[in-house]
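Key result, reporting period 2: structure in, sequence out.
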């Protein structure tokens, strides 16, 4: 199902649709918070996504060795905690600002791995964006706990990137990814049960959770694979930098969330910084 989705779709529309699907899924997930809470919504999304991936790819988990699991376990833990802390941040923040703050994690990771002088400029631009949306008293409209949770999600995102690289090098095919999603489901499910209890089993909420899982995991995964096969890595990275803006538009369209002009400026700084680091990364690649 995933690998065959939209095989003739051009790369650029595929990637834009993938980002729209992810952020539309996040907006839809936020509407489930009154019934399930962020923890319940996270557990439902991750668990159902894991079931879908297991059904589609049928990974041979028995063939995994102990050293494979030593790579998969931190990968799955980072994935689960990233989703949990991000959804918790949405209790306090508009979707666009939460995604903007979350992007700080990969940006700092890029700086740490590079240490090129130009990359400090991009991270400085991202830092300016964070300063512009930092808590400014009650009138600022940014909850400190929400900001901290979004930044924590960004830290787990950076850990997810590092751990994902280790899994990709050690475990061939999709087995490592699917196993990691299973680990994330096992990790987040207790939080979901504690927060939502038996509500997780309500048929209408299970169906809604499946929709979130497909929008946020299955569909964008297949579309991103189309884009990755056709686009150079640096172009892919630049386009992915648009995600905070798409998140802000999704929040406005589906949730009625509105950002101030200063917050849009901050978002633009982070988008530009992310795009700049992606372009710099291209120059670091061997010819």
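The corresponding designed sequence is given below.
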């Amino acid at each position: 199902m995933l690998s065959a989705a939209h095989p003739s779709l051009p790369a650029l529309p595929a990637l834009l649709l993938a980002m729209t699907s992810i952020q539309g899924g996040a907006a839809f997930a936020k509407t489930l918070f009154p019934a399930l809470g962020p923890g319940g919504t996270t557990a439902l999304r991750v668990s159902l996504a894991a079931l879908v991936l297991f059904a589609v790819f049928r990974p041979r988990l028995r063939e995994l060795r102990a050293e494979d699991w030593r790579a998969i376990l931190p990968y799955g833990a980072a994935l689960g905690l990233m989703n949990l802390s991000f959804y918790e941040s949405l209790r306090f923040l508009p979707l666009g600002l939460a995604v903007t703050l979350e992007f700080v994690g990969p940006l700092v990771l890029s700086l740490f791995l590079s240490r090129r002088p130009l990359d400090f400029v991009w991270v400085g631009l991202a830092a300016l964006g964070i300063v512009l949306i930092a808590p400014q008293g009650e009138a600022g409209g940014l909850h400190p706990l929400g900001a901290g949770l979004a930044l924590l999600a960004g830290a787990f995102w950076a850990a997810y990137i590092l751990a994902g690289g280790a899994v990709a090098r050690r475990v061939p095919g999709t087995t490592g990814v699917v196993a990691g999603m299973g680990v994330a489901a096992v990790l987040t499910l207790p939080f979901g049960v504690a927060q939502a209890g038996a509500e997780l089993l309500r048929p209408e909420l299970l169906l809604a959770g499946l929709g979130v899982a497909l929008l946020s995991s299955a569909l964008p995964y297949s579309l991103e694979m189309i884009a990755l096969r056709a686009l150079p890595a640096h172009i892919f990275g630049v386009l992915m930098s648009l995600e905070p803006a798409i998140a802000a538009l999704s929040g406005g369209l589906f949730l009625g969330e509105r950002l101030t002009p200063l917050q849009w400026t901050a978002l633009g700084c982070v988008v530009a910084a992310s795009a700049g680091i992606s372009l710099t990364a291209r120059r670091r690649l061997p010819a």
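The mean pLDDT is 85. The chain has one domain: 11-284. This case is discussed further under Risks and Mitigation.
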